[in-house]
Write a structure and sequence with these properties.
Layout (H helix, E strand, L loop, with lengths): L1 H14 L2 E3 L8 E6 L4 H15 L7 E6 L5 H7 L5 E2 L5 H10 L1 H4 L4 E7 L7 H4 L10 E5 L1 E2 L10 H5 L3 E2 L2 H13 L4 E5 L13 H9 L6 E5 L8 H9 L6 E3 L7 H7 L5 H18 L6 E8 L6 H14 L3 E6 L17 H23 L6 E10 L2 E5 L5 E5 L9 E9 L4 E5 L1
Parallel strand pairs: 1-5, 2-3, 2-5, 3-4, 6-9, 9-10, 11-12, 12-13, 16-18
Antiparallel strand pairs: 7-8, 14-15, 14-17, 15-16, 17-18
Helix pairs in contact: 9-10, 10-12, 13-14
């Protein structure tokens, strides 16, 4: 969501006669599009704003939006450094502020520096803004925003509000335009993407409609909640031809007690049943094709004992993930977990993350062996130091010796010749 949100902000500003600059020292306005999910991202905002504010001679205006904009403690801390706090969906506040400063700056062609640190609050109208795409072959298309789940550790329901879905016809129109321009990969976005429902169709039905759009392109989606994964969704994901053979299924914890305190609304047994259903469906609907399952896990949730932590390791071994995104628990103001005793030390959190990462390394190493000798479609994302770097349809990273032709943004057939723990190596066919 972060990248997509910033693209829409940029488009809105440019429509109001502002232009973007990559040099923050040239900017008349600096927009911080903030993330409040983890303390690290929040601290980064404080540091950057402090450094900008030290330049007393500059007349630049600092604007803060996103997750942190409505928090009273943040406003109090930055009141002397930030010129405007505004919720991302209240564009009138931004527009009035900019216009009000035009005369002072004395320049109608303004320059904006958009700091893309984002994870922002938005309205359904905001999602309808045509974004300024920063990539000409991969696009992020938000289909819903907000969350109704209130997981104990998460600020999203407070920062973005309740779930709202975009009309499916609007989504289809945006994707058709992207495919017509030659985009190779479309990622459907939402805080709880598989709870999408615009009153006419649900997420599974939307997937099928996107899959039916003519053209050669890939479909991805993030992020979904296990409680909303049903048989219809599994069937849609594993049978649609353009939907990639990867399924991101956040676990967060393997202990049923920790999951209960997290308010996740499922237990480890339920979760592993879903994993097994996904594996069986891929084998049935796309026989012979490789597939991947990825996840998110939080280590050191308040009260998590060593025994409960071992339950996460147990689930990891059974699920045999291809990738896991680990996060050390970070207490967020306003959430239920904020008032829980954070009794797992930073040292212990780091140890637990390292322990789980070693389990992941073993499963990915084993899974990656299945790729050697196979010729796969790889989307080339960049060229660097004589190599192409891209991803398979299962989102495996691939390193390939570069050809003389410029092939970034193309989907190519690549023969995999070597498997490492975290990536594959191949050669162009």
């Amino acid at each position: 969501m972060n990248h997509s949100d910033s693209e829409r902000i940029a488009a809105y500003l440019e429509k109001n006669n502002l232009s973007e600059t990559s040099n923050i020292n040239e900017a008349n306005f600096v927009v911080f599009n903030t993330c409040g999910v983890r303390q690290m991202a929040e601290d980064r905002v404080y540091g950057q704003i402090h450094n900008l504010h030290k330049d007393k001679k500059s007349k630049r205006k600092i604007i803060l939006t996103g997750c942190l904009a409505n928090r009273k403690d943040v406003q109090k801390r930055l009141k002397d450094k930030v010129d405007l706090f505004f919720p991302i969906n209240e564009f009138e506040k931004l527009e009035n502020f900019v216009i009000g400063n035009l005369l002072e700056i004395g320049n109608l062609k303004l320059k904006i520096s958009a700091q893309k640190i984002s994870h922002i609050q938005e309205s359904i109208a905001y999602l309808s803004i045509n974004p300024k795409y920063t990539n000409n072959f991969q696009a992020f298309v938000p289909i819903m925003t907000g969350c109704n789940n209130f997981c104990a550790y998460c600020v999203v329901p407070y920062a973005r509000g309740r779930e709202v879905s975009r009309p499916h016809k609007e989504i289809i129109k945006e994707i058709k335009a992207l495919v017509k321009k030659g985009y190779q990969e479309i990622t459907l976005l939402g805080q709880n993407v598989n709870s999408y429902n615009d009153g006419k169709i649900n997420f599974s039905q939307l997937l099928k409609k996107v899959d039916a759009i003519p053209g050669n392109f890939r479909i991805l989606f993030v992020s979904n909640h296990p409680k909303d994964v049903d048989d219809e969704m599994i069937e849609a994901v594993t049978s649609c031809k353009k939907v990639c053979e990867c399924f991101h299924l956040p676990l967060q914890a393997g202990s049923d007690e920790v999951l209960r305190r997290m308010n996740r609304k499922y237990n480890s047994k339920d979760y592993l049943k879903i994993v097994n259903k996904i594996k069986k469906a891929f084998k049935k609907n796309k026989p012979g094709k490789l597939f991947s399952i990825t996840s998110d896990i939080i280590v050191g949730f308040p009260g998590e004992t060593k025994k409960q932590f071992e339950e996460s390791a147990k689930v990891m071994r059974k699920a045999e993930y291809d990738m896991v995104y680990f996060g050390q628990f970070s207490p967020r103001p306003g959430t239920a977990a904020w008032n829980m005793k954070n009794n797992v030390s930073k040292t212990e959190k780091a140890r637990r993350e390292k322990y789980l990462n070693e389990i992941l390394k073993k499963t990915t190493s084993e899974n990656n062996k299945n790729y050697v000798g196979k010729t796969l479609e790889v989307l080339i994302e960049k060229e660097e130091n004589g190599f192409y770097f891209g991803k398979t349809r299962t989102l495996k990273n691939v390193k390939i010796p570069a050809a003389k032709k410029r092939l970034v943004g193309k989907i190519l057939n690549v023969k995999i010749i070597k498997a490492n723990a975290w990536n594959l190596e191949g050669k162009l066919n």
